[in-house]
Amino acid sequence: MIIREQCTCPLEVVHDIIKGKWKTMIIYQLKDGSMSLAQLERDIDQITQKMLLQHLRELRSSGIVDKIKTEGYPLHVEYYLTERGKRLLDAVLIMQEIGIDYMVEMGQTELLDRKGIPYPQKSG
């Protein structure tokens, strides 16, 4: 991940931090607390372990996510949102709501139904 040194707006920095297909989904998955790598991989459809590890590394380097290692064998690692990550989660939740509204407007509710994501029913 490259965060530009010269920018014209703070939003450019945030964009650099969260750009990529999976980062907002990782942040969303961590909304309820820490999760293991295996849990994240299971809960994020179609992400590969390689991409998950790369994005977690990038989110850690920007202070959005951190990890806890538990001693013993096998080694157990859990990832969680930092305070900065929790602040960013607020924005991600708004993005989720906007995505849901758009999908409802476009009649694309099959995915929402399949994943059990609640949405407002169209009146009419």
Automatic annotation (TrEMBL):
InterPro entries: HTH_HxlR, WH-like_DNA-bd_sf, WH_DNA-bd_sf. Residues 9-107 form the HTH hxlR-type domain. Keywords: DNA-binding, Transcription, Transcription regulation. Pfam families: HxlR (PF01638). Transmembrane segments: none annotated. It comes from the Bacteria. This is Transcriptional regulator. It comes from Paenibacillus cookii.
